[in-house]
Design a protein that fits this description.
GMP Synthetase, Chain A, domain 3, alpha/beta, 25 strands, binds adenosine monophosphate, 540 residues, nine-stranded mixed sheet
Length: 540
């Protein structure tokens, strides 16, 4: 027997209608590329989204067609998010930090028909234009006054909107229709497209807003530092409209000073970003003796949050850290570390130790760890194996079936290696490609990196496996020192003593000026392994 509930498809446009109707005066504030602050409401945003939908229709955009963005976090990007998906087309966020060849590949692979871009990215557009034959138009996200001179024929965003009425009814269609597309910035091979649907996006937006996830509500002011081109800014635009919170978009300026000023001016209560950004912010705060007056929580994910960063936020600044883990293939949220009732009496050290873990799953995500033969491993907090996930916001395969079927018995292999404890808290011990295999045993490069950055002289650290005649691989610690700091190899190795098993001790330390990163700010270990391919360890 079927239940007798209405069968209403889950539509992204419904989020915006809801925000307009119920939180019409809640603000969306943006620092703009042109300079200055732009301020309006969900109601005004909804009106402009309807104009934009009409403009897209006038340009001939069809359902299913890909419309791309090369843009920072800002109100026009927000409008494109809702108008493109809302009208039935596919919003494709391009990561402008990818290498030029990868960008050309992505635009052509996605067959984008229009590309909307912030003025910062005009040089990229000019480099892409004659290599992207399928693109029918390049739209500068600005007004007539700020339109640049260019060899490429450009359309003007504000002119497109001004030519249209705001009379537009959002269509209702199958909730499984594709809504947006984001390419993974894999460290090897061509990027692969992850294609989200209206249904997956709405379910994920509900999940992300939950108290034990990002904990967003109509009483929050949320500033996503995480870019809207990095897996939908971890759902903040969608969960923002769902909850009716105030949103503050930081635009192109993501340095510590600019972000701090916006936190204070707009009274931000919640933020989210990758560790690299927070490193800059914390350094700025320390140098200038600053305090947060409204920030209560911050989500840190994308790569492991160093324990020193958790302590700094919580002990020095009274800001709760929500350590989160996810992937482009997972929309992205999988787990977040928050406490349970039974943790109330825990010591500070025990609570911190729990926060180093990547956390518990949000309902909707199932996970398990398996050995190389696919056998389930116990949830005991020590056994570590390949982390597998499944759920309604996890990919079932890549765009245009690139790479074949990625699933194993219906589970998506994350490529991460993890432990899960009896309470369901998962901890990443490594990427399966980065784990150091020494004499048949595994050493976690992430553990060694986290310990190294807790040293006061260390700015950033990476640990890779280097070839060893006896052990196959041994760990090499590669360090960027803090400005003006002095530290020797011996001092760093001594710092590990008593904190790790003896055989985990790095065999050597190399000092470098900087470390290579991927377009989303993760350590690029493939490059490091190339650079140190012939490195001779003193023990070899
Ligand atoms: P991306 O799809 O670019 O967001 O990359 C996803 C990958 O980032 C995951 O598979 C993890 O390897 C890594 N990652 C994300 N969040 C964390 C975290 N909190 N700790 C450790 N690794 C993380």
């Amino acid at each position: 027997m079927h239940g007798l509930m209405m069968n209403m498809p889950l539509m992204i446009s419904a989020l915006l209608k809801h925000a307009d109707q119920n939180h019409g005066d809640a603000e969306i504030v943006s620092r703009t590329v042109e300079g200055g602050i732009h301020r309006y409401t969900y109601r005004a945003a909804h009106q402009r989204c309807r104009r934009l939908a009409n403009a897209l229709r006038a340009l001939g955009v069809q359902p299913g067609e890909r419309v791309a963005t090369l843009a920072w976090n800002g109100y026009r990007h927000f409008e494109i998010y809702f108008a493109v998906s809302g009208m039935g087309a596919v919003m494709h966020t391009i990561n402008p930090r990818l290498f030029p060849e990868q960008l050309v590949y992505i635009v052509n692979h996605a067959e984008d028909s229009y590309v909307f871009f912030d003025l910062t990215f005009l040089p990229l557009v000019e480099a892409l234009a004659d290599k992207s034959p399928k693109v029918k138009g390049w739209v500068a996200m600005t007004d007539r006054e700020h339109m640049p001179q260019s060899k490429v024929k450009l359309l003007c965003y504000e002119e497109l909107l001004a030519a249209q009425s705001d009379d537009y009814e959002w269509p209702v269609f199958d909730e499984n229709t594709a809504s947006s597309l984001c390419y993974t910035s894999g460290t090897t091979g061509n990027p692969k497209g992850v294609l989200y649907s209206h249904r997956s996006t709405i379910l994920h937006a509900y999940g992300a807003a939950l108290p034990d996830a990002l904990n967003m509500s109509a009483r929050d002011c949320v500033l996503p530092v995480v870019p809207m081109f990095h897996v939908n800014a971890w759902s903040i635009p969608y969960s923002g409209a769902l909850t009716g919170c105030k949103i503050v978009f930081p635009g192109p300026q993501l340095d510590g000073k600019s972000v701090y000023e916006l936190f204070e001016q707009e009274k931000v209560s919640l933020s989210a970003g990758v560790p690299t950004v927070w490193m800059g912010l914390l350094a700025h705060m320390k140098q200038n003796g600053l305090r947060f007056s409204t920030l209560k929580r911050t989500v840190i994910g994308g790569s492991a949050c160093p324990p020193a960063m958790i302590r700094s936020f919580q002990d020095e600044y009274g800001v709760q850290v929500l350590h989160a883990w996810g992937m482009t293939e997972m929309s992205p949220l999988g787990t977040v570390t928050t406490f349970k009732l039974k943790h109330d009496g825990m010591s500070k050290a025990e609570r911190e130790a729990l926060q180093y873990k990547q956390g518990r799953v949000i309902f909707g995500v199932e996970m398990k760890i398996v050995d190389d033969g696919g056998k389930d491993l116990p949830w005991d907090g020590t056994a570590f194996g390949n982390l597998m996930v499944r759920g309604p916001w996890i990919t079932s395969g890549y765009f245009k079936a690139e790479g074949g079927n990625p699933l194993k018995d219906g589970w998506f292999p994350t490529g991460d290696v993890a432990t899960i404890d009896a309470d369901g808290y998962m901890q990443i011990t490594d990427r399966s490609k980065d784990v150091i295999k020494s004499g048949g045993e595994w050493i976690s490069s992430i553990d060694l990196e986290n310990l190294a950055v807790a040293h006061p002289a260390v700015q950033e650290a990476a640990v890779i496996g280097v070839r060893h005649p006896k052990w196959d691989e041994r760990p090499l610690l590669i360090v960027v020192k803090k400005k003006d700091a002095q530290v020797t190899k011996e001092e760093l190795l001594k710092f590990y003593e008593g904190k790790i098993a003896k055989w985990w001790m790095p065999d050597d330390v190399a000092f470098v000026d900087s470390l290579p990163h991927t377009a989303t700010g993760k350590l690029l270990k493939t490059k490091l392994r190339e650079d140190f391919l012939n490195y001779k360890l003193p023990s070899a």
